[in-house]
User: Fold this.
Amino acid sequence: MSSPIGPFSPAVELAAAIRRKEVSPVEVADCYLRRMDELDPRLNAFCHRGDDEVRKAAAEAAEAVVRAVSPDDLPPFHGVPLPVKDLIDVAGWPTTYGSAGADRTPAATSDPVVRRFVDAGFVPLGKTTTSEFGALPFTESPALGISRSPWDPRRTPGGSSSGAGVAVAAGMAPLAHAEDGGGSIRIPASCNGLVGLKPTRGRVAHATVFVEGLGTSGVVSRCVVDSAAALDVLARHDPAAWWSPPAPRESFAAAAVRDAPAGLRVGVLTDSPVPGIGVDPACTAAVDRTLRALESAGHHLVGTRLPLPSADELVAQFTTLWNLGGAGIPLADPDRVEPHNRALRDAARAVDSWSYAEAVTR
Assistant:
């Protein structure tokens, strides 16, 4: 792809360039596949590649551009590649959940989240690495290998959406699907200098419950507008769901680009919710810089605390749900599950219905 459109261009700009016929979906796909060939052998962002399917989908997208009477006839992300974290199904590809014990039979159908992405015009680019069951904040897996930071391959890129963070930071994808139950979008975003937004509980309706309501799908991206526009694709109001926040009054992408009203009242939370676990000084310094910028823009800062239960109660309820997170994952060989997840699965068997109900409704 030629300047100013390139592998580090925002996804919304790539999509606009495709609609304007400035670049072809085939050119875009080929660019990212070449970068994957060049970079992924040492970074290990992808655990499954479907290059033939990617090129076929890109060619079909290019034909649709030619047929379109107006750019408005095309979906918002038409022809833009998007990798999918290897915790949900893409039809025709295996889902390993990062586990050597997984059944690697190709999925018969795509997860509803993937279908929303495809309906919005995205081209699935491959499956990205994750720690087993998404349970750890790094990927050093007997099944998928070690994922490395593109900034310094001696360091971790964070996790559990490790491959998603690596792919976007290294310019192997414009943005990437990710999931977050205990930090798995936010941690790799922090480690790789990306935007990582965990959507509000229930904002993204799922066919299945991720980590018993703690988890949700989202993306990691290089800019706020991309994350907002992707949330417009994913967000679904489901009145039948246990948790479903009110539908937004405007699109997230529109809110991301308009000027904020002056004099907003902004809550500030800088304390760790768990006693004994401190906040890194570098993180505190980054928050302080943001607060100064907000003050200079005329906003009012108010210190606040989260209305959380006691530390012991919080940890106990989180642990109950976390133990259950991988309990329902289909396995071909449970004996090949990593020791920490075997321990979690064993602990899940001891959870009684009362403890579960108490934790899941908080």
Q: What stands out?
A: Residues 25-43 form the longest helix (19 residues). The chain has a mean pLDDT of 92.
